[in-house]
Design a protein that fits this description.
The protein is mainly α. The chain has one domain: Na+/H+ antiporter like fold. The chain contains 20 helices and no strands. Helix 2 runs parallel beside helix 13, helix 6 packs antiparallel against helix 8 and helix 6 runs parallel beside helix 10.
Length: 344
């Protein structure tokens, strides 16, 4: 074996491993959650880099935005505007009124902070790709994701000032500034790289990019999951209860949105409901530079379970409902493959 062929093989092995990892999809995502819980020492190692991981994930998401699909949906903006208003404005107000009515802001301010940050967060960057896997309208999800994320530097500080107040470690102005810098910076990096590399090259390297995405996501997830196992051993019932709350909130967001958008097609209602339930709490964590109370951090970690298990749990239901509505989920998934696969 020549030195040249040996070098090619050595360089090819990591690339092949990255492609293999990228092809595992949601199985790999579920696995990294379990690894993060089982190996808390890795989480403590990665915790200082959670913000950087979120930034890289956002860069990857912007790298893979389908601009032609974006323009098509912006040409029919009514549904996009309705979904944006619901997820960006109505949702935080409803959350705040319910939580304040139950007195949670007095009884458990750290949990109140966690739930309010969840409500003001934009949809998760991975939601278009997950919607495509489920045969939903990934383009509608993508466009609404972009419009609602663009509002975050304004809406998050507004609702933080109105409802959270002194419980927030950052001033509303500082929060808005950090969110704008993170989003604008990642968009600039991702879109610039997209222009330089080209769409054809990005498409050819899809599996490798997915694999890199999963590796970076592991840094974020491991950082979040660092204290979950210890907290469960110390207070098992409390941790289980908090996990149950995370699932309840997830499905409440999902089904209330589906009902609200029942006036449109079944596929559109399912798509918007799925997107709204996938909240990008990682972005809020990055904006706060990880400076969150322990209980808030724990809830953020536990809320990842319904997010990452949702595609597995909801895929049979989605296929059944779409089939009843005359939509072929397999064909829809094929036509939506251009959706970005960034996360958080």
């Amino acid at each position: 074996m020549t030195i040249r062929s040996l070098a090619i093989r050595l360089l090819g092995t990591p690339a092949e491993a990255l492609s293999w990892l990228g092809r595992q999809g949601t199985r790999a995502v579920a696995a990294i959650v379990l690894i993060g819980i089982a190996l808390p020492s890795i989480g403590s190692l990665f915790k200082p880099f959670a913000t950087e991981a979120i930034f890289i994930l956002l860069c990857i998401a912007f790298l893979r935005i389908d601009t032609s699909a974006l323009k098509a949906h912006l040409g029919r903006p009514v549904l996009v505007l309705a979904a944006t208003v619901w997820t960006s404005l109505a949702m935080p107000i409803i959350f705040a009124l319910i939580l304040i009515a139950f007195g949670l802001h007095h009884d458990s301010p750290d949990l109140f902070l966690a739930l309010m940050l969840q409500s003001v967060a934009s949809p998760m960057m991975a939601s278009p790709a997950l919607a495509a896997i489920m045969g939903l309208d990934a383009t509608l999800v993508l466009v609404t994701l972009i419009t609602s994320t663009a509002l975050i530097p304004v809406t998050a500080p507004l609702f933080a000032y109105t409802f959270i107040g002194p419980a927030l470690a950052l001033s509303p102005l500082a929060l808005g500034t950090k969110l704008f810098v993170i989003l604008a910076g990642s968009a600039m990096v991702g879109l610039t790289a997209r222009r330089i590399v080209g769409l054809a090259a990005i498409d050819r390297q899809k599996a490798k990019i997915d694999g890199m995405n999963i590796l970076v996501l592991f840094v974020f997830v491991a950082a979040l999951m660092e204290g979950v196992a210890a907290r469960f051993l110390a207070t098992p019932m409390y941790t289980i209860g908090l996990s149950a709350l995370a699932f309840i909130v997830f499905f409440a967001l999902l089904f209330s949105t589906i009902l609200l958008f029942g006036f449109t097609s079944r596929r559109h209602a399912l798509s918007i409901g799925f997107m709204v339930s996938q909240r990008n709490m990682g972005l809020m964590l990055a904006a706060m530079s990880g400076a969150l109370p322990d209980l808030t951090w724990l809830y953020f970690a536990l809320s990842q379970f319904p997010i990452y298990l949702a595609p597995h749990m909801l895929l049979p239901l989605s296929r059944r409902l779409l089939a009843q509505g005359g939509v072929n989920p397999e064909r829809s998934s094929e036509t939506s493959r251009s959706a970005p696969t960034g996360n958080h």
